[in-house]
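Per reviewer request, we include the raw input and output of the structure prediction for the construct analysed in the revised manuscript.
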Amino acid sequence: MAAISPQSDSISPVEHPPIDQSFTQHATTSSSSNYFDSLPAEIASIIFIHYIHSDSEPREIKYHHPSLTLGKICRRWRHIAWSTPDLWTKLTIRPKHVTNVELAEEWLSRSGTLPLSIELITRPDDWYHTWESVRKDCKQILKVLSRHSERWCSLTLNVPSTCLERMGALLRPPSALHHLSLTPEWDDWRDFLVPGYPRLPTFASCSPSIVKLSCVKVDLDWRLVTELALEHLDTAQVLQVLQRATSVSKCTLSQIIDGGFISTGHAPIVCPVLASLSMTFDPDTLRPSTTRRFCSLILLPALKHLSLGGDRRNTIEPPIDDLILLLTQSSCALETLVVNHSEYNQSSLIRLVSLLPSLMALHISFRPSYSWEEILCGDIDMFYRFLADASQVATDLLPTSFSSTNPVLPSLEIFNCAGYKHPAWETIVGLVKPISAIEIPHRRPLKSVKVHCIEIDELRVPYIPKDIIQHLGEFVDVEFKFTVDLYMSQRGMNWWQASVEGMKGT
């Protein structure tokens, strides 16, 4: 591809992007064009910057990219766009042909000395070459990017693992790097899971504050990391990172693998400021002792928000006993608990929430298979009945430390539940009315109650009972939102509104 310069009077046909964006359409009308062209170049440059950066969608480096589109209109626009560095600071590359290397080189040269946000994302369907050609082209692009490493502010690399390994040391230390995301694709990424496999040295001098790693071991200065996401790493690697990343306040651990490499003499690791944790394990490698050992080796005294489970079927949350161990030994005051697609049974959930007097928000959803089993055995409402009135639950199902003189979840403000069966409606009333199991009735400070149900047969969706709506209507300071997803017709229904309208018709 021929280089594009501000002095060029024309652009080759392959570089002609379609002008389909509202700004350029409006600006090229006769009256608008005359007015815009009368503006000083400095003002036009500011307008161009606003136009480019108001588009929040990450755009791939292509010939119809907005920054290149501006340069097509006329010679003056091209000169302004080509000489405005702010238009060229975000670079997203999904390589389809080798000319991206040339375009990336020219793109970055126009950005001057400004900080750069770069994404290089390779997918098998992005390439039309052999595997060797893929790695060769990717290696060339990485060389171009590395020449500007001192200006990296955000760097996301989804590339073949061999390309990551061969990056080597950077001549210009990326001292400005704020966000780093590394994901090896395709070929030999599993090598990174082998014990003793060398860590990538390329980023050893980096001190980013946001780090996301998937299936890769990296040498990094972890001291300034505040947000951390680790995926497909073995438990030993996760513990090593947490030991060094003492400033982490938000952490996501996804599909953690049981590599069997945790040292038996490992001392507990204290994460002094970690306030938000999301955690799932890989069920294919998990052994019964893995999560127990892992949870016993981390102390989270500042933990406020905990999320377990996920949408993926190949993830699993830690066993309830291990989770309780983690929370009790951390002596944390948990405020938010999210359990996605839960497989915990009802008695386990009762044991868990009875230990969380500081909890302010509870979000829980059940996996379909689990919910149907619970429906068949009639156990689905036990947990909700416990929240509404603990005296309704048999004492042998309660934890030994539980005292009926203490209200359950006394600080609860937000309650969201979802599944293939709604809880018994009277338990929802029990959530918001004063808890009478103690001498002085206590009412939870609830602000929002949401119930979401997925129904296979929409003809089976009953109205919410009239007396329930009347009872709940008395609590004017609580927002109630009850919804149903009708599976067969693939539409949603406002359950509360439909029930109220149904009451009017009777």
